[in-house]
Fold each of these.
Amino acid sequence: MDLQEYLDRMNSGEPITGEGDMHLCMREVSEETMRLTCELNNQYHTQEEVREIFSKIIGKPVPEGFRLFPPFYANCGKNITVGKGVFINTGCHFQDQGGITLGDGTFLGNNVVLTTLNHDFDPAKRRTTYPAPIVTGKNVWLGSSVTVVPGVHIGDGAIVAAGAVVTRDVPPNTLVAGVPARVVRTIDPTERPRQRLDLAHLRDAPDTEKEK
């Protein structure tokens, strides 16, 4: 099985079962990606060098304006697509077998986790996995330590507050927060004076209010 056949199968959303060619290819791709992420993370690189290594990790050219602050971790790499002006901060983890697409201008804070595989709930079938893609629209901001689960789409202009766990699609131009993440309010780009108040409210709100 070649890489494109592997990616086509992962992107089909069909369950991945057993050992066979799929798991063999998965392991080979992961080994290459681990080698490249070690090269990226274990010494200083200029941003030009970072972009060059990252393009090898994802197997395609990196668009203009892309920036990444290592360390960065991925266990596939070849199913990542990034738009123009994407920024990835330190310590982010991508489990991208099911596909990760970051739209133009997406910003990721420290330690963001994007995961695109679920395991079967049946203990006897736990090795079976179900891939599902994560997609962000344009100008999305994921705060520090956000986790996004498989199959989630995040709309243009949305903000995910730090520490949130995103388990469902996020509408465009909304601020979501909490575990699981829920819509706090819509975003009006002209209301810049409200930004400090919103952040203070999320910080100071009682736990019961945060859970609503």
Note: The mean pLDDT is 90.
Amino acid sequence: MKKIGLLSDTHGYLPGKAHSFLADCDEIWHAGDIGDLETAKALASLKPLRAVYGNIDGTGIRSFYPLYQEFTCEKVKVLIIHIGGYPGKYSREARELIDRIKPKLFISGHSHILKVMNDHKNGLLHINPGAAGKSGFHQISTIVRFIIDDENIRDLEILEIPK
């Protein structure tokens, strides 16, 4: 069993409440637009960090983190990419990766809109954790936490921080 902390679109800013919310997680996953290496280092100092780069991330971030990540956590195949869309409206690149990798959990960021949706057609759960940072149109910053236990994804929690 692993407890996962999931965030996206920090844009170089990590809310103070993030530290306590992520403290009891086993891993932290970041779905892109990290903003700078200092933010990535701050997250990695809390727990092991898996991340992808986003469209605003420069060469420093891109040299450390890939465009997408595919891996297995417990018995759940995971795919993370920054610009991925959502069920029925995936980006072309996400659609190709989903068809090839066949994840059970698909994570993307970019929209700054928190979404958790089942994709019955592809047999996966899609999570977009919204935006944890201050930059963007969102009025509430969000971070997600959940448990992966064997092949089950459960106990999803959301931290909401007014901007």
Note: The radius of gyration is 14 Å.
Amino acid sequence: MTKTIRSSALTRVRLIEAASQVFASLGVQGATTREIARVAGVNEVTLFRHFSSKEQLLKATIENASALQTEALEHPEAWTQDLKIDLRQYAQLYNTMLEAHEDLIRTFIGEAKRHPEAAKQIIQEAAKPLGEKLVGYLQSSQKRGSVRPDLDPFPAVDMFTGMLLAGMLRRSAKCTQNNYSCEDYIETCVDVFVRGISTAPLSVDNAAVTQE
């Protein structure tokens, strides 16, 4: 029985990995369950034993893409309550996910206007948990007084993750003209964001520069 369960779990993993490849190369519209099954090395009947539709497989693929990052943020010790340290960790985890699934992300961006509404909803719902982790963190930080009370966490999180996404897309497309590293970019994003949301005053040096 245990062997059967293990075999079923491995087949599910193969199907999700195959779906990620097929969605990335053919897009949401062009991908078929037959092609996904072929890439996974199984027949369509086996695929439908695990996933009732292509849409369900799409949701599983996106959830799998962010699962490790979401899990890493589940534990209380993952958050130090220091804005800069926590947001740097989040940014690094988020960037790891973006880089690992660049092809899939580019496909979804390219097809955004052509996705059926059902597929759009699946993509948004599956990707939501990772963003919700940061929204929740910012809301709790507002209660502690370290984040501005007038800040709306939802657009703030969209802005922060959008900066990270833009950086990944530019780096992978070799669009950056200046010689700075990925780490430099992430550190700058975190620094700018923290300065914008924090209730802490600017440092003396920075205040002096501003007055000049």
Note: The longest helix spans residues 2-30.
Amino acid sequence: MTTDPTTGPTTDPTVATADGTTSATSDSTAETRQERFERGIEVLNRVDGESGQRVIDALADVNPELGHQVVAWGFGEIYDRPGLSPRDRQLVTLGMLTALGGCEPQLDVHINAALNVGLTRDEIAEALLHTAVYCGMPKAINATFVAKKVFGERRLLKDS
């Protein structure tokens, strides 16, 4: 299958190889662009719920293709792979977003997602503490303040 930038994927029975040549493919299970998006939406809703949909909606008027790719590729292709559980994927995501820094809006979404897929408040706090060793105190503190906001919204803060 190839992709035409204006019309999306086609069912061309050849694929490009690493050396730039093409070869025949026998993959009869190839998904269309719309099918990947629909599968991605199911995963997005299951994991991120309303907060994930809000991100996609916010992109619609400025870069709808980025929103499409977040859903179709990020969730329909990558997040839905069988190699890691959704819980483990969220732990990795929290660590990466913390390490990158400046990703607080995405951390908000993914801390909610981590809670949605079964991580506890204490496990999230421990994961963010662990990031301090590898990414530094300022990034770990910033991420923890995002967690505090989410925990407060979800009434998960511990009593003082």
Note: Residues 1-26 have pLDDT under 50 and may be disordered.
